# Entry
Amino acid sequence: MTDYRVRPAVWEESDDLIARWLLNGEYHRRQGLGRMLVQDLVAWFREKGARTVELSMAAKNELGDQFWSALGFETLLVRKVLRLT
# Structure
């Protein structure tokens, strides 16, 4: 089974910036745009035969955690970092 990663397989850099603007902008929140975007991406991944979709986000992003959980994403791993500088 092929693994698909969003950045190289789907989006160009300019598309990534647009998606970040849509998903992060206060003006665009709570309108269903992010949900529609993610649902379309998930459908595309399924058509391509992907078995999982993974993402990362900031640890203390409560709104992001609620958004992704509402779409069915689960926490699989927690990444810890020790900064040495």
Residues 1-9 have pLDDT under 50 and may be disordered. The two ends are 40 Å apart (CA to CA). Residues 6-70 form one domain.
